[in-house]
């Protein structure tokens, strides 16, 4: 255990060396009672880029000036925004721009992708997934299986943590893929578990799924903009993610999907929507659906210009900061957070457990406080430190590189220590 003053000095030194420190000013930080709050909720809703308001105002002005012709006219025609977004998003998820489509909402995109990639046939009817997946993923899978006239209770196989453990073991996932082998139509997992913050080995799971003859897909809601991903090189078949968490697109932001280029020129069915039709023939209004090239062929509805504007404001910041620099700072914030949490757990053995495996952690750490969880959460909130609560007894904390600091993590450490010291007496 270190003298807390040393942690403070260390945090200050790390912040002085932070090459991304100025980007904090590019976001609107929450305030309360005249003071700036500490915001550790990038895993739930990212902060508003300062440029977002101007970006929305610009679209409103274009709408006012050009009406529907704003899709094609003006300095920044709306028709170009999706392409701009795909180019900026691609390096964040390790994809080629043609493999990314910015569209709809996360669960809608998963339904669209499952309509293409979940094709139960013969023995291959089953889906392998994580136990207690995020509820919308569970509802989506049940609906997709039932839509094929099959029993979700039989066709969906779940892999859960072992008795007494909080996270999945990688070998259990791989063994399950091998065990069910030729029964699997699809292997589908969350890249980062929303509850524990555990990152799964996406590359290895994809490889095992392919060796078994199955398709590999992922929900990357808690991974995109957080972890270093290489979707193209890992040969992931498909993925989808929301853009309102680590990517700061705003509440209810337009989402994204990925389809590997190996599927672009195939006869796989697309959902079939006007906006997914080839742009060259879209306005001919013909009966035959001709899918656009690449992931864009999975589009359905007209993309909302206002929502694209807010996401574009954020992704321009990512581009300016540089994805490698962002990942480097994530590592620095995470290492310091693990250091002070380790000190807390040594000072208060049994009172705090970090559920997130440090070796594969991104921004999020899930702290399990079996006795004082809600009290600690309330005390953090009262001190202006914004985290979130998950039953039973978990406080999720997610410092993000673009707007959080090491000194804020020290403040978290200090407040946690004071709260536990008071509650233990």
Task: Write out key terms for the chains shown.
Aspartate Aminotransferase, domain 1; 2 domains; alpha/beta; 17 strands; about 425 residues; four-stranded antiparallel sheet
What does this molecule look like?
It contains 12 helices and 17 strands. It has a 7-stranded mixed beta sheet, with helices on both faces. The protein has a 4-stranded antiparallel beta sheet with strand order 13-14-17-16, with helices on one face. It has a two-stranded antiparallel ribbon with strand order 1-5. The model has no long low-confidence stretch (mean pLDDT 96). It is of the alpha/beta class and 425 residues long. 44% of the residues are buried. Helix content is 38%, strand content 13%. It has 2 domains: 4-36 and 322-424, Aspartate Aminotransferase, domain 1; 55-321, Type I PLP-dependent aspartate aminotransferase-like (Major domain) (Aspartate Aminotransferase, domain 2, 3-Layer(aba) Sandwich). Helix 11 packs across helix 12.
User: Strand order of the main beta sheet, please?
Assistant: 6-12-11-10-9-7-8
CATH architecture term of the largest domain:
3-Layer(aba) Sandwich
- The N- and C-terminal alpha carbons lie at a distance of 21 Å
Number of helices: 12
What's the CATH topology name of the largest domain? Aspartate Aminotransferase, domain 2
CATH class of the largest domain: Alpha Beta
Average pLDDT metric = 96
Helix/sheet category: alpha/beta
